[in-house]
Write a structure and sequence with these properties.
There is one protein chain. This protein is an all-beta fold. Helices cover 0% and strands 26% of the residues. The protein is built from no helices and 14 strands. The strands form 4 sheets. Strands 1-2-3-4 form a 4-stranded antiparallel beta sheet, with no helix packed on it. Strands 5-6-7-8 form a 4-stranded antiparallel beta sheet, with no helix packed on it. The radius of gyration is 19 Å and the shape is globular.
């Protein structure tokens, strides 16, 4: 019978909540939304075309977020026996892969259009809300830093961040749940220090200099919608 997982321990849980002492999850390791830094999506495992029809649910977990496009639009990240997941209200959970028990939850209640999601590395979980990027402690879910990136209430963020060599990469987009592609909005890729959240550099996904000064309020196109890929030399490849 499928199991419906419940919240066992959380920074946002009511007073008196007890941790799931039976969990075997290690809460360590790194994980990427597309399997690896190169976004190959080539996951190795025992599931094949010959046995996929025999799969059965081991446990289930409710999705209750409410956004313009439903409750969920991300790829769960799995590493060392833990599933890290973000819903369309930007809330993040760590679940025991074996049991489905919730190890911790971090609430943001910041609806966005998606796709969104998180990346795990360096002992932290990196993600974004509709307004900015954040880093959570991988073991507890406690927020380490938050950096607001949108410039006005008509911009948003709809992507899984990239993480590589101590840097977090997050892009804004020219819209959000309420409006899109209005004047004065554009996509900006930000490179943030993974330890502090401090802005290191930025890149306009649509060059501002292509427009005359009298048309500076015109919409300048989209931003990134998917996690960037990285090559062995540290090069970054962006997906619009």
């Amino acid at each position: 019978k499928p199991k419906s997982a419940t919240n066992a321990t959380s920074p946002d849980a009511p007073a008196g909540s007890k941790p799931d002492t039976a969990s075997k999850a290690s809460l360590t390791g790194s994980g990427y939304s597309n399997v690896d830094l190169s976004n190959t999506r080539a996951a190795k495992g025992s599931i094949t075309s010959a046995n996929v029809a025999k799969l059965k649910p081991a446990w289930t977990h409710p999705l209750t977020a409410q956004s313009q496009y439903g409750a969920y639009a991300s790829i769960p990240v799995i590493t060392k026996g833990v599933v890290y997941s973000q819903d369309l209200e930007s809330n993040v959970e760590a679940l025991d892969l074996r049991t489905g028990d919730v190890l911790w939850t971090k609430k943001y209640d910041s609806p966005d259009q998606g796709p969104n999601g998180i990346v795990v590395g360096g002992g932290r979980v990196f993600g974004a809300t509709a307004e900015g990027a954040f880093a959570l402690d991988q073991k507890t879910g406690k927020e380490i830093w938050f950096e607001k990136l949108i410039r006005n209430d008509e911009e948003g963020i709809d992507m899984t961040p990239g993480y590589h060599h101590g840097m977090v990469y997050v892009s804004t987009v020219p819209g959000n749940n309420t409006k899109f592609y209005n004047e004065g909005t554009k996509g900006i890729l930000w490179a943030l220090n993974a330890k502090t959240g401090k802005r290191v550099w930025s890149f306009d996904t649509a060059p501002t200099k292509t427009w005359s000064k009298k048309h500076t309020k015109i919409n300048l196109g989209g931003g990134l919608w998917h996690a960037p890929a990285f090559d062995d030399q540290g090069g970054i490849r962006l997906y619009y």
